[in-house]
Amino acid sequence: MRFRAVVGVAAALVGVSGLSSSHGTLGLVWARQAPQSMAGRPPLDIARVLAAKYPAQPIMSYIPALAWSGSFRLAVLTGEDRWREKPRAEMEAFLSGKTPAIAEPYRLTSLAGHLAFADAEQFDGNRAAGTLARKAALFILPDQPGMDVRFATGWTDDMFMASALLSRLPGGTNTVPFSATLAKLLTSYATRLQRGDGLFIHSADGPHAWGRGNGFALLGVTEALTHLPADWPDRPGVLAIYRKHVAALATHQSDDGSWRQVVDEPTSYRELTVTAMTVAALSRGVARGWIDRATYQPIVDRGWAAVAARVMDDGTVRDVCSGTGSGPTKEYYLNRPVVNGADDRGGAMALLAAIEVESLRRQRSGR
Prior knowledge:
Glycosyltransferase, globular, single chain, 4 strands, mainly alpha, two-stranded antiparallel ribbon, disordered N terminus
């Protein structure tokens, strides 16, 4: 009924305007309905839309890797093997060697893309992918005294990039276990960048609580706590960093459930990626008993509502901060361009949040 009405109105407008085809017949205007928000839709519905769309650019980077990883996990949650097809096809160029997986210019953000190859081994039984992930993990290990990892920037981004890869892989070298390297990195970054109130500044040269920068810090410690064993010697210290951070973030949640581009700046816009990353990290913390369910479940629920409201039914997303380096002023972060539309980064992080929220809901229901 709606389609007929739209076409009828369009045709009437054409008639009023006197437009016609080159043959003198009435031209038809086809009106396309604008994408609608997926607010209120179940996490798996949203995950399916996002997994089908992202990544659009299958490069070696943490961004497509988050989407590939989310697709593998979606296949496990739904029992639908079709969600493995896209990541399998897009990762094949790196597995075959057609596209070098470790290539100059070396960047931690690129090398972190191997996190999906570790997940391909876990969730898809691809041993060659696991071998490639381990090669990348060895490649970023420090090669001189005082270094946390190779190719580090000193930004909170490094906490996630290194942790997402190193935490997924057992062992390391005879002298430098991955877990020891990771513990040193996470604790040293927290010492330098975590403020007394629990929030993280982006870097020493960017002393502001950038939203996605806080998301990177939080997900970095979350990945380590998730994948490393219960008897990891540095677990208590890393867990303390996590708890201090989530307590601080909880006090800055906006009235619609989101977090802001600059977390502690009330005039800053509400941003998708920090919201999705925080929701994912809190969901995992509640599920695994790191934080109190009664306190944090309502925060997760409000946060998820804010994520879902920013995902459209065609997979486009809203309120995504564009790629951002370290900047010296708060205005630098406040004035970063905002993406509204198709975006690999925003789509991948929203997919991560959907997977974690669905996993938490299943745990609560005993499924």
